[in-house]
Amino acid sequence: MLIPGFISLRRKKMARIEAAIFDLDGTLIPRNSTEKIIVRHFVKNLSFSLSGILLYLLESARYKDFKSSKAYYHGIKYFTFLNVINKYFSGVPLNEWISEKAIHEIERHREAGRKLILLTGAPEEAATRFGKVLKFDLVVSAKIKVVNGVITGKTEGPHPYGKKKREILIKLSEYHNIDLNNSYGYGDSFADRFFLNIVGNPVAVNPDKKLKRYAVHKGWKIVYWF
Predict the structure, then answer these.
(1) Residue 185's beta-bridge partner residues?
(2) Most buried of 62, 78, 84, 126 (most Cβ within 10 A)?
(3) Beta strands 184-187 and 201-205, pairing class
(4) Helix 124-133 to helix 33-44 angle, to the nearest 10 degrees?
């Protein structure tokens, strides 16, 4: 004899959902805004250590990409880092950071019942501020590793950038039962092509030159939000 409750639970488990996945810097806000603001502050205050800079250059050479490493934070006290985050990102005003077009697109997906995901390589401490203000369902960002109150320059878990973004999104889709074929993805850089390639509705937002050429070749939608 089948129990009705068991049947409904089974159907609920099998139901797949659609999602809208957004990059942050360059997509929802001007390119590299979070990192530029944080790094500019530490440069101005001569807070970066020589070891952190050298480690950053070595890792960037290894990965052949200057955006794939957070090593320049090496040696900075986490308390100091949080103070900088609070100074620049507390009470994030939407009208100053994000265009009306971007907000309209987010709301369109919310009304359609899609799961809103912010997938970014920005530091978790800053990304979560934007996720909260925009009322995203899920924020996946770079989690900076801290030991004894000092930033190591490493990240805990995969850094959401390039191919790692694709790997993370695949795992998220499995865990949250997301139908990627009917989901939407938004990114601005050539490195975002990896995760955009696995969603059914990829959108190049304010694309850099390489992504624009790639998007035209692939027949993707291209939009400009600022």
Answers:
(1) 21, 202
(2) 126
(3) parallel
(4) 130
- What pTM, to 2 d.p., does this model score? 0.84
- Listed in order, strand segments (DSSP E) in 67-193 are 115-123, 138-142, 144-147, 150-155, 184-187
pLDDT for 14 equals 59
Could you give the CA distance from residue 53 to residue 192 in angstroms, rounded to a whole number?
26
* Range 130-169 burial, b when 16+ CB lie within 10 A, else e: bbeebebeebbbbbbbbeeebbbbbbeeebbbbebbbebb
The SS3 of residue 26 is coil
Q: How confident is the model at residue 207 (pLDDT cuts 50, 70, 90)?
A: very high
Long-range contacts at 167-171 (CB < 8 A, ≥ 24 apart): 168/119, 168/140, 168/195, 169/21, 169/119, 169/195, 169/198, 169/199, 170/198
The CA-atom distances, in angstroms, between 202 and each of 30, 50, 73, 214 are 19, 40, 33, 12
| Cα-trace Rg, the chain | 19
Least reliable range by pLDDT among 73-77, 175-179, 213-217:
73-77
pLDDT score for 65: 52
Residue 180 is inside which H or E element, if any? none
Cα 87 to Cα 207: distance, rounded to the nearest angstrom: 29
Task: Tell me what percent of the residues of the chain surpass a pLDDT of 90.
Answer: 54
Tens of pLDDT along 162-178?
999 999 999 999 999 99
Strand, coil or helix: 146: strand
pLDDT surpassing 70 at residue 28:
yes
Query: For residue 196, what are its two tokens?
Result: 């955009």
